[in-house]
Amino acid sequence: MRRSTWIKHHKWFGLIFTFFMFMFCISGIVLNHREAVSDVDVSRKWLPSSYRFDRWNNGLLRGSLRYAHADSILLYGSNGIWMTDSVMSTVLDFNDGLPSGTDRRNIRTVVQTADKTLFAVSPFALYRRDGKKWEEICLPDRQEERLSDLTLAGDTLVVTGRSYLYISTFPYHGFRKVEIKAPADYDGKVSLFRTVWLLHSGELFGTFGKLLMDGVAVVIIILCISGVLYWQLPGVIRRLREKGRNVSACTSLLKESLNWHDTVGRYTFLLLMWVAFTGWCLRPPVLIALVYGKVPPVPGSMLDENNAWNDRLRMTRYDRECGDWLLSTSEGFYSLSSLDAVPVKEEKTPPVSVMGLNVWQKDGEGRWLAGSFSGMFVWGRTDGKVLDFFSGDEVHEVSGPPFGKRAVSGCISGIRPVPFIIVEYEKGTDSVPMPEKFSTLPMSLWNLALEIHTGRIYTLLGKGTLVYIFFAGLAAMWCIYTGFVIRKKKNFVGKE
Q1: Among residues 190, 391, 224, which one has the least CA distance to residue 309?
Q2: CA spacing 20 to 30 A to 169: which of 76, 176, 224, 288?
C-alpha cells in the first residue's frame, strides 16, 4: 500500500476504537488489583437493564442451608446471605460482620456443624458465626490463594482453595494446610489458556509483571489522547487563525502530540502487540482452541512449582455410599480413599463447564447432582450412569461446553413444595419470589471491570458481544502495526 493509505488505516482504525481501547486499559488496571478494589461497589441503577437482578438470576442465588433455628433456611450467593423460611414469607439480611464490599460477600458455600456453628466461604476469606455476627478466620500460610468451596464430613471441615486444602476438626480452633498428592497421570504441564491469561495480565511474573502490564495500559491511554489531539488540533488552529488569534500554543501542542505519539508507540511496539494478541486469544472463537491445550510451565513463573494441583482444585466432597473423598478439578473428577492418598481419575463423570461446578450435592437416592454452565446432571457412581437432570437421557460426554442451553448457577432445597429448585444464570427461577429491592443490589467494581474488559457491557451489540473481542483485537493489532509502518523518519515532523 501507498504511505497515504497506511496513514488513513492508522487514523481511522485508531479513532473508531479509541473509546474502546481507553475502556480496555482502565478496566484492565482494575482487574489487575482485585484485592485493592474489593470493597468498592457500583450501583446497578447506572448499568444496562440486563444487569438488574430478576428472579434470582446472574448468580444472586447459589445455594441454601437449613438453619438450626426452627423453620429457618439460609440462602446465599453473589451478594451475601439471607434468612427465610420454608415458604419464603420474609427474606431477612444475615450479613452482620461480613465485609461491606460485594466482592467479599460472594458466598460460595455455607455449612453448619453439629454444635450449630456456621461457616461460610468467599473467594477471599473463611467466616465463622457462633453468635450474632460473622467473624473472619485466618488460614495458615494461605498468602493470596483464592478459596472456592467448603464442605463438612462428620466433624471434619474442609476448605478448598484453588491449590490446597485447609482441614479442621471439632472444635475448629485451627486448620492445617494439605497439599494433595500428584495423580498417576500428572505430566507437569499446565493449562495453555491460563498461561495466556497470566501473560496478558502480567501476573505470570508476579507483582512486577502486573505493574508492567499496568504501564502498557498507561501507554495506550497516552497514545489514545495524543492521537486524538493530533487529529483535532489542525482544525482548532485553522479556526483560530481565521479569527486572528495567536496559535503558537496550539501549534506547539500539535508537534508535542505527534512526538509523544510516535516516540511512545515506536519503543513499546512489541509490548503493545503482545498485549493485544494475548487479549485477543482469551475470548471466542480463539478461546475454544486454548481451553483444552497443555504446555510446559514457563520457567521461573508462578506456574513453575512442585504442587501438581496449583490453581486446579475447585470443590471437595465426601461420598458416604462409596466411603471415599471426591475432588472436582480443572482436570476432571478424582477420588481418594483419604485426603492424604493419591488421587485416582474417575472415568464415567458428568460434563462440567470449564468455568467449574456451581452445584454438587446428593439427591434423595444418594446420587450426585452436578450443575454448571453446561447444565445439570445426575451422577450415579455405583451404577456408572450419568443422566441429564431435565430430560432423563443418558449422557456420555465427559467435557461440557463453556455455556450450555441450561446454564445452572445454583440449586436450593427446603422450599416447599418441591425438593429441589434449579436456578439458571440468565433465567433465574420462577419457583421462589425475589424481593423487589434485590433487583438493584450493587455490583463490585472488579466485576464491572470484567464486564467492560470482555465487552459484555455493550449490550447494544446483542449476540455480537460474543465476538466483540475477536474483531476489537484484530482492529487493535492492525492499528498498532500500521502505526509502526508509518513511524517518523528524519525530518518527518517538518514535512508533516
Answers
A1: 190
A2: 76
CA distance 230 to 252: 11
Residue whose C-alpha is closest to residue 287's, from 352, 200, 376: 200
| Chain position carrying cell 503493545 | 272
Residue 195: CB partners within 8 Å, gap ≥ 6?
A: 204, 295, 297, 298, 303
CA atoms within 13 A on the CB side of 58: 19
To 10 degrees, what angle do helices 269-281 and 248-267 make?
A: 70
Q: Show Cβ contacts of residue 404 under 8 Å, excluding neighbours closer than 6 positions.
A: 353, 373, 374, 375
| Beta-sheet strand order (sheet of 92-93) | 63-66, 72-77, 80-85, 92-93
Give the C-alpha separation, 30 to 358, whole Å.
Answer: 26
pTM, full prediction: 0.91
Q: 233: which 3 cell numbers?
A: 488540533
Largest CA distance in the chain: 90
Helix, coil or strand: residue 455: coil
Long-range pairs for 83-90: beta carbons < 8 A, 24 or more residues apart: 86/414, 86/415, 86/416, 87/415, 87/416, 88/415, 88/432, 88/433
**Residues with Cβ < 8 Å from 450, sequence gap 6 or more?**
27, 31
How far CA 83 is from CA of 75, 151, 413, in Å, comes to 6, 20, 14
N residues, the chain? 496
Strand partners, 165: 160, 178
Per-position pLDDT tens, the chain of length 496:
888 999 999 999 999 999 999 999 999 999 999 999 999 999 999 999 999 999 999 999 999 999 987 679 999 999 999 999 888 888 999 999 999 999 999 999 999 999 999 999 999 999 999 888 999 999 999 988 999 999 999 999 999 999 999 999 999 999 999 999 999 989 999 999 999 999 999 999 999 999 999 999 999 999 999 999 999 999 999 999 999 999 999 999 999 999 999 999 999 999 999 999 999 999 888 888 888 899 999 999 999 999 999 999 999 999 999 999 999 999 999 999 999 999 999 989 999 998 899 999 999 899 999 999 999 999 999 888 999 999 999 997 776 666 778 999 999 988 877 788 999 999 999 988 899 999 999 999 999 999 999 999 999 888 888 889 999 999 999 999 999 999 876 444 444 4
Phi-psi region of 143 (alpha: psi -120 to 50; beta: other; left: phi over 0): left
Q: Is-contact 110 83, C-beta < 8 A?
A: no
